Model the fold of this input.
Amino acid sequence: TACVMRCDPDGANLELVAWGLRNAYGLGFLPGGRLLATDQGADDRGTRPIANCPDFLYEVLPGAWYGWPDFMGGRPVTDACFRPADSPAPEFLLANHAELPPPQAPLMEFEANACAVKFALVPPRFAGFAGHLMVALFGDEMPMTARSGPRVGRKLVRVDPAGWSVHPVQPMALHRPIDVAFDPSGSAAYVLDFGQFEMTPGMGVEARAASGCLWRLCPDFMEV
Done:
């Protein structure tokens, strides 16, 4: 299980803030101090496959439990929606749910297997979108993490915190975006592209050398 911890700058006074996340890949603060985390949902693989699980955006709250390994986005893994096509429904692993806080619900959900990673806050210079989140979706790793389905992710999306809704940005030739940031002047955005690779049916990797890059995007890239 993934935990959120905090400590002093010198490493002293390490303490637990929240737990029960699965893979909290991206962390960031809103201007008012709220801490957000992208969390990658469970996979349809291994000895306890969980199917059709979205990725999530959570607010990290002190003392909160986010449900892993028995709840996904506030829903129990025993729910029929998580049952794989050719495997039994997942069962609970923890026997002390009554001793734990209720699992936190997410602010929003991304597509299953989208692999939400890092995000950045849109600065004031981007008129109309200031305060929104720009989120990198690394993309699926089928057939390792899911049995089959359409390719998802491999793009940026904009999240409006007014209603936690997801919006597209201009299409671009991204392979595997993994991080996004805005320069201090707010005049441009930068996207780190991990590069081109796919998982093969034999669980190997097909990758293209030198396909990773750093993109610089002009302010109008969010206009669709």
Summary: The chain has no helices and 17 strands. The CA atoms of residues 169 and 222 lie 5 Å apart. The mean pLDDT is 95. The two ends are 38 Å apart (CA to CA).
